[in-house]
Design a protein that fits this description.
CATH architecture of the largest domain: 3-Layer(aba) Sandwich
Strand content: 15-25%
Order of helices and strands: EHEEHEHEEHEEEHEHEEH
Distance between the termini: 10 Å
Number of domains: 2
Number of strands: 12
Structural class: alpha/beta
Mean pLDDT: 93
Strand order of the largest sheet: 3-2-1-4-5-12
Number of helices: 7
Radius of gyration: 20 Å
Helix content: 25-40%
């Protein structure tokens, strides 16, 4: 019997999960909403490191792992790579291509949080689209700045920060309104790729605003690598059909 473990938490992963039958498992870290309309099983929570994932693969008789986690979920991707090697389970991965700057873009790469704060020091109204990380630094906001932080979960913020809880996809009109309301003068972003959150880059381009781009982590290889969910799901369906019991 073939059994797939899909590692997700992204729109790409959800698109693949919607095509999985009941015997297979969609795994989420527990952030954001848990889908309720899937035929496959949904597992929420971590595995307990590499050893825990190896035990899970063996206990659940997993025959293929598909890593469709976020491009910045590097630890999970590394754990999946190591665990699959130990358990001798094939590993596929969806590696969404990074955004590429256009000639009129002003992108400034930063390797980590310290580099980000140094690059935004001259600015007054930054928009953070890094997820939860800025929430741990709200007490460090300099007097000259007011932050707008967009992430999935609600948070009270403070007198120097507004937290916007929202989930993409985001369109140009909505992003323009956010930039206007918050008087944004610099954007801080992960280079996530894809279309769901790309509109902020278009608005920054329109307004000639700089974008501080957090560098992508280096991810491990996989037996097969796909650029998008559609090609991964198509190949997965053919694989399931060819490996099904007759």
């Amino acid at each position: 019997m073939t059994r797939v473990l899909l590692l997700g938490g992204t729109g790409d992963a959800l698109a693949i999960a919607r095509g999985l039958p009941a015997a297979h498992v969609y795994s989420l870290a527990g952030l954001g909403r848990v889908p309720a309309d899937l035929a496959c099983s949904v597992r929420v929570g971590g595995f307990g490191g590499i050893d825990g994932l190896v035990r899970y693969l063996r206990a659940e008789a997993i025959t293929l792992v598909v890593d469709a986690t976020h491009p910045y979920a590097a630890q999970m991707s590394r754990h999946a790579h190591a665990a699959c090697a130990i358990a001798r389970v094939p590993l596929w991965a969806v590696r969404r291509p990074a955004w590429q700057p256009q000639p009129s873009d002003d992108w400034r790469e930063a390797a980590d949080w310290q580099a980000i704060t140094a690059r935004i020091e001259p600015f007054r109204r930054p928009l953070f689209t890094l997820g939860r990380e800025p929430l741990a630094h709200l007490d460090e906001i300099p007097p000259s700045q007011y932050w707008t932080v967009r992430c999935l979960e609600a948070h009270p913020g403070n007198e120097r920060a507004t937290i916007v809880d929202a989930r993409g996809p985001f369109d140009l009109a909505g992003e323009r309104a956010l930039f206007d309301d918050a008087r944004i003068d610099v954007v801080i972003s992960k280079n996530s790729g894809g279309r769901a959150t790309e509109a902020k880059l278009a608005v920054a381009r329109e307004r000639r605003l700089p974008v501080v781009m957090l560098a992508r982590p280096v991810l491990p290889g996989a037996g097969r690598i796909f650029d998008d969910a559609a090609s991964a799901l198509d190949t997965l369906r053919h694989w399931l059909e060819s490996n099904s019991e007759t």
